[in-house]
Each structure stands twice: as structure tokens, then as C-alpha cells.
Amino acid sequence: MSIIINDLVENYIDGLYKCKNEFLKDMRAFAEQNNIPIITKDTEQFMSILLTIHRPRRLLEIGTAIGYSAMSFAATSDELEIVSIELGDKMYDLALKNIADAGLNPRIKVIKGDAREVLSNINPEFDMIFIDAAKGQYKLFFDDSQKLLSPKGIIVSDNVLYKGMTASNEYLVKRKRTIVKRMREYLKYISNHPEYETAVLPIGDGIAVSVRKG
Ligand SMILES: C[S@@+](CC[C@H](N)C(=O)[O-])C[C@H]1O[C@@H](n2cnc3c(N)ncnc32)[C@H](O)[C@@H]1O
User: Fold this and answer.
1) What pTM did the predictor assign?
2) Going from the N-terminus, what domains does the chain have, and what CATH number goes with each?
3) What is the pLDDT of residue 124?
């Protein structure tokens, strides 16, 4: 059940979703069976539209998991190159296997490590950045990765409404207090950032789209 949007509306929108290929279909099923969080169907669809409009040549992703989102982004254009960062050993190995099986080497390169360290050793520049890792670290990821962003580039932050908890204490689970506090500070920060125009959208678990004014 979703708190961000009404269940009936969510199910209706999901019913309109069409998977781009068999690899992605199998990977979504695998993620569901193994409780691995990947982008929701509506987030995937929204990202496809954004990628089709913006046409980035290089995209940086923070948080690869099994490689699902990176592979779905790659399916929008043969020209797109992706660099994705993943901390977990198991996720990294699964992502490499999935990417190789789908023949997406070397268009998708996965770097193993903590994004907080890896980001200072990556060459610019990226036309789009997708942040989808530890929610308490988003400000850090934003500040460090935006140095690698091209003028008029876009930063998309996923899961920013965090099951509604960011928006209202009514949904707040006590043990998530610190992460939620940080996410609220993050949204305030990017919404008031002088170099970016930001919209927070109730898609999936909440998406923030920040466009560099250039
Ligand atoms: C929500 S999952 C990513 C899902 C993926 N983007 C998708 O939609 O298919 C978040 C991933 O970020 C990774 N992660 C968390 N903190 C990280 C960090 N500091 N640096 C790199 N990866 C991190 C986790 O290991 C996890 O696999």
C-alpha cells in the first residue's frame, strides 16, 4: 500500500506500465522475490520521459543495487553511457552479472565503493545524476556529485517523501526520526539552492527533480 498516492490510482497507473524488455521483467520479479528495493514502475516511466526529453550523453547513478534502474535508463537510448556506484559486495556482483548478461558492457560501468569516497575520484561531466542510496546522506551526495554536473544538468533524487514520513509526522516511525529529519533538511536545502530549480513530485516514493539554472 502506498501513502504517497491513493492505492486505486496507483494500481491504475501501474496497469498502464509496459516493461521495456525481458531482462527488466525478470529482474523486477527477482527484486520483488528477494525484497531488493528498486525504482517503482511509475518512477521508471517518469525517468524514461525525462531521459527522452533531456537526452543526456552521460548519467551518474548513486546506488546501483542489482542494476535495474541503470539498465532501464540504458534502454531509453543507445547513446547513453552510465556510471553507477554501489557499496554492497553482493549487489555489486549481481549488477555486474545482470549488465554482462544483457550485453550492456561497457555502456554501464559500475564502481564498487562508498559514493562519499568514490565521488571525489570520478571524471566530470555528467548531464544527469540519479541519487538512490542511503537517504540520510542525500545532501552529501548532492553537494559532491553536483561538482560533476554539466551546465543545465539535472539531478534526480529518489524516495524523498519516504513513505509519507517526510511530509507528515502522522506517518513517522520513531526509529526513522533521524533519517526523516535529514530528508526534510535536504528538501529545504535543494528547494532554496540558488543554482537550482527544484520540483518535488509524488511519484513512486517521491522524486525531487533539480535543474541547474546554467
Ligand atoms: C534503493 S537501492 C538502489 C536501487 C537501484 N537504483 C534501482 O532502482 O534499481 C540503494 C542501493 O544503494 C547502495 N548504497 C547505500 N549507500 C551507499 C553509498 N554510500 N555508496 C554507494 N552505494 C550505496 C545500497 O547498497 C543499495 O544497493
Assistant:
1) 0.97
2) 7-212 (3.40.50.150)
3) 83
What number does the ligand 1 atom closest to the CA of 38 have?
8
Q: Which three cell numbers stand for residue 85?
A: 556506484
The pocket around ligand 1, CB under 6 angstroms, is made up of 37-39, 62-63, 65, 68-69, 85-88, 91, 114-116, 132-134, 137
> Block means of pLDDT (10 residues each) for the chain, length 214 residues?
84 93 97 98 97 98 98 97 98 98 96 97 94 98 97 97 95 95 98 98 97 89
Mutate to test the pocket of ligand 1, among 34, 41, 47, 87 (most ligand atoms within 8 A of CB): 87
Using the structure block, give the residue that is written with the C-alpha cell 501501474. Answer: 14
Whole-angstrom distance, CA of residue 29 vs CA of residue 19: 12
Contact between residue 212 and residue 202 where contact means Cβ atoms under 8 Å apart: no
